[in-house]
Amino acid sequence: MTSDRLLPIRKSGLLRAGVLKTLVTLAVILVGAVTAYHATIYDLKSELAAKADSRAVEQINVQLARIETMLSEVVATKQEQLMLAAAIEKRLGAIEAKLTQLP
Question: Quick check: 64 and 56 in contact, CB under 8 A?
């Protein structure tokens, strides 16, 4: 009689082990699927950020080119400033000479 009692317990133990093994397998599959999902989302976000960065860099380059063009049109170089200072000094010298000739 003791062997009959042990047999159902063993069967239920085997059944529990099989269910437990199946549950662990399903949990591992679920964790793998969630990990793959998050890895895919992260990869897509990284690609999108890289594209956004390249677009931002291109827009900044265009803006910098515009600013450089404006500055080159408006701002004089050092050589141009020196030439202008020399021309002003020459004119002032001519004005002083005329003023000294006045009675």
Answer: no
Whether pTM exceeds 0.70: no
Which 8-state DSSP code applies to residue 76?
P
Q: Contact at 8 Å (CB) between 14 and 7? A: no
pLDDT at 14: 56
Domain boundaries, the chain: 2-75
66 vs 98: CA distance, rounded Å: 46
| Nearby residues of 76 by Cβ (< 8 Å), 6 or more positions away | 84
C-alpha 35/C-alpha 52 separation (Å) is: 25
Q: Measure the CA–CA gap between 39 and 30, rounded to whole angstroms.
A: 14
